[in-house]
Specification:
Blueprint: H1 3-40, H2 45-69, H3 80-126
Helix pairs in contact: 1-2, 1-3
């Protein structure tokens, strides 16, 4: 195969895999996150729903931005083995970034939840 064809194959597969991973994970996190946010925001359904939507948009934009910025393979891909190696490496890095993003979001929501609990306990003890 010609190098240009392999480079185009890399772009296509990398973008498709990244978009599918982002889309699937964002749908799952949005669906599951709503329940978690309801508890974190003490059953304030409207606030939890709006927060979940904003988190979804941020998640998608951040990941699509990363995918498109890193789509360039950096060097000419010389054969299908090289194509596969580059794809596996880039997708692996992307999955690690998704995991870090998710963990940071959970930590942030946990901190918010703990602060709300402390605030509620202080308000309840004052009366």
């Amino acid at each position: 195969m010609h190098n240009n064809t392999l480079n185009l194959d890399f772009y296509f597969y990398y973008l498709m895999i990244g978009i599918i991973l982002t889309g699937g994970l964002s749908a799952f996190l949005y669906w599951q996150g709503g329940r978690f946010l309801m508890e974190a925001f003490q059953k304030d359904e409207n606030f939890a729903r709006r927060t979940n939507s904003m988190l979804l948009v941020g998640f998608i934009l951040l990941n699509f931005g990363y995918i498109f910025l890193t789509a360039n393979p950096g060097i000419d891909i010389v054969n299908t083995n090289h194509l596969f190696e580059k794809l596996v490496y880039r997708i692996g890095i992307f999955i690690i970034i998704l995991a870090v993003e998710h963990t940071c979001s959970l930590i942030g929501l946990y901190v918010i939840r703990q602060r709300r609990k402390v605030k509620t306990n202080i308000e309840n003890s004052e009366y």
